[in-house]
Amino acid sequence: MTNIASTVNVEQTKPQEIYSDPDARKILQLLLRNITVVISPQALPTDEITYPQLQPILGEHAPEADSILARMAAAGVLVETLTDKVPACPECNSKQVSSRYLCPHCFGFDITRSFLFEHLKCGKVASDDTFKKRDEYVCPKCQTVLHNFGVEFRAIGAWYKCNRCNNSFNATVHSHFCRQKHHQFTPDRARLIPIYEYKINMRIVNEIRNQVLVYGDLISFLEDSGLAVIAPHTLPGKSEPRTFDLVITSKGRWGAQKIIVMDVINSESEIGSDYLREFAAKVRDTKPASSYLVALPKLTDEAREVSRNLKLTIVEAPSLKEAMSTIRELPEIKELIS
Hints:
Blueprint: E1 2-3, H1 13-19, H2 22-33, E2 42-43, E3 49-50, H3 55-58, H4 65-74, E4 78-88, E5 97-102, E6 111-119, E7 125-127, H5 128-131, E8 132-133, E9 136-138, E10 145-146, E11 153-162, E12 168-169, E13 173-178, E14 184-185, E15 191-200, H6 205-224, E16 228-230, E17 233-235, E18 242-244, E19 246-251, E20 257-266, H7 273-286, E21 290-296, H8 301-310, E22 314-316, H9 320-329, H10 331-337
Helix pairs in contact: 2-6, 7-8
């Protein structure tokens, strides 16, 4: 679908690619139903980042949600907000990363932590297990039974022992461990992956509504009529591949595939001839069985003359609803529907 009226300062090809992408359209249709919705990330137990709100509508494409959302934000259709940064493995990019506490002497991870207790009256400092006797705490120096933690005795820090080299120490060193590929790496080597939440760009919500709802309604209309529709779809051309907003496929004579292409031009004013020449070039290059250009609301007089010279079939209508009624009555479409 082509939108002539531009309301944002972004490259026009980028939003157009989003408007014609099936998965992106589904996301935008969800957001248009409630423009206050924020698409929020969620971490799985595996530490992979998902967007659960999109799983029902994207289906098997749900694992690709982050890349789809990123493209939509790059096009200016969505607004992204940084919510977190998570470490990822520098070797394989996995976000399934654990933190490890290591012995500073042998760098082993089999360490035991205990707390250091201090008896405030006699000043004895020792590990908590040294103070523990059955169900009581007893000072190992003066043998006083201690009842009130924080009053008679207190914790003054942690103490570690390495079960590998038997060294004791009061502070560990840290590393990360990739659970997927078993890479171990220091924090300074970790990749920091930004995690975003997304919402619709309110500055262009009217443009989005105009593009997405028109496009989606036309697809639904054709599919509900029993036609096989691919939207959008790229066909091989003589000079280069060409993309159309809609491609209708059906069986022709002797079982051969019949291809009908359709583009939609949606404008706030009359549509000029440049768009017609571009469409005609795509048709000549791909040679479909039939081609239709839907022009909303209408062509200029010059463009109408150009369409006759180029032998294009144009559907002019002030609204999509009226255009769909006209499309249904086209002889070729009626034949396919029947």
